[in-house]
């Protein structure tokens, strides 16, 4: 009589051989070829505006940025970020769109530089940077200058 084993021994099967065949008749893939994807001019991809309408929107944002609304330039750069990011594709396919978006980027950069320079000059420089003209430029002493603070 055979005694039952407490733990059965697993049977092992030899691993199957893997055969790799190389077709020497076809050339190896070219690493410079890439898969072409559909490029969308806006950040919302296929849900955004068409390529024809995108030029009109970019032009409007660009021109209204000159009407003391320079944050539209920032919005233009954000909304058309793929145009800034993929410069080679859009410089050939839609140069007009790229021109408006690059112009908006330059305009907003200049505006942000001028605004931050002005803010830092007034916030940290004051009379040391500007000199005696400081008293005429600041707005917190207008009531004292015109005698409007005495009745309060």
From TrEMBL:
The chain crosses the membrane at residues 61-81, 101-124. It is a multi-pass membrane protein. Belongs to the PEN-2 family. It comes from Lithospermum erythrorhizon. GO terms for biological process: Notch signaling pathway. GO terms for cellular component: gamma-secretase complex. Pfam families: PEN-2. Residues 1-33 are annotated as: Disordered. It is found in: Membrane. It comes from the Eukaryota. This is Gamma-secretase subunit PEN-2. The keyword Membrane applies. Keywords: Membrane, Notch signaling pathway, Transmembrane, Transmembrane helix.
């Amino acid at each position: 009589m055979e005694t039952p084993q407490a733990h059965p021994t697993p049977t092992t099967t030899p691993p199957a051989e893997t055969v790799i065949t190389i077709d020497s008749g076809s050339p190896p893939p070219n690493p410079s070829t890439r898969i072409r994807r559909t490029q969308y001019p806006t950040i919302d991809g296929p849900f955004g505006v068409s390529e024809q309408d995108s030029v009109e929107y970019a032009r409007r944002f660009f021109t209204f940025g000159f009407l003391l609304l320079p944050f539209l330039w920032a919005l233009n750069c954000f909304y058309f970020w793929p145009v800034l990011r993929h410069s080679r594709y859009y410089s050939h396919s839609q140069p007009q769109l790229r021109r408006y978006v690059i112009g908006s980027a330059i305009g907003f950069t200049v505006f942000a530089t001028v605004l931050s320079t002005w803010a830092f000059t007034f916030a940290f420089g004051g009379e040391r940077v500007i000199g005696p003209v400081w008293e005429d430029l600041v707005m917190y002493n207008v009531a004292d200058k015109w005698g409007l603070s005495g009745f309060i």
